[in-house]
Amino acid sequence: MTLRNDDQLLTDYGKRGDAAAFDILYQRFRQPLFGFIRQQLPDAIANEVFQECWMVVIEQAADYMPCGSFRGYLFTIARRKIADYWRRQQRQPSQTSDDDGNIEPISDDIDPQIIQLQQATNDVILMCVGRLPKAQRDVFMLKQTGLAVEEISLILGATFETVKSRIRASYSKLRSCWERHHDK
């Protein structure tokens, strides 16, 4: 069996109806894609957006023309879906997420202090990421999914050097924010 690249797999699925090719693509990208979406949306919405992304891939498979990487194409779809969600939320400010503030029950064998410490750590990290300027936050989130700088630059429509600078700046700001806030 020969290994096919992602673009060839989508082409095989779109042009020849090769369901096995789609399955391979799905297995390769389901975890990184969901992780990327979940970092930016509540659970229930993340699941919905994840499914919408794959529906776009399926619907556009027959017309897919490789002009970068499949990974870049897929994450561009996700970025647009995430932006659409947040735009809709700005138009409906009275809606809130069910996921905000939910506390899961603690079992007897888990140390509540450790859970508190983990939650505090997560809160600091999220706060620091949230304080990044949008351009740096976008680059940081895409980099966390494992995308290469070249792919990020294609997705964002920015030069390779601009993306590298934003990555460096985001890591520097996150490190500085972490140092200021993690012991408080």
UniProtKB/TrEMBL annotation:
Does the record bear rRNA processing in its keywords?
no
Q: Which Pfam families match?
A: Sigma70_r2, Sigma70_r4_2
Q: Which InterPro entries does the record cross-reference, listed alphabetically?
A: RNA_pol_sigma-70-like, RNA_pol_sigma-70_dom, RNA_pol_sigma70_r2, RNA_pol_sigma70_r4_t2, RNA_pol_sigma_r2, RNA_pol_sigma_r3/r4-like, WH-like_DNA-bd_sf
Q: Where is the RNA polymerase sigma-70 region domain?
A: 25-91
| GO BP field | DNA-templated transcription initiation
Keyword field contains Transcription: yes
What keyword terms does UniProt attach to this protein?
A: DNA-binding, Sigma factor, Transcription, Transcription regulation
Per UniProt, what is one GO molecular function of this protein?
Answer: sigma factor activity
Where would I find the RNA polymerase sigma factor 70 region 4 type domain in this sequence?
125-173
Family, according to the entry, reads as follows:
Belongs to the sigma-70 factor family. ECF subfamily.
Q: Which PANTHER family match?
A: RNA POLYMERASE ECF-TYPE SIGMA FACTO, RNA POLYMERASE SIGMA FACTOR HI_1459-RELATED
| Protein known as | Sigma-70 family RNA polymerase sigma factor
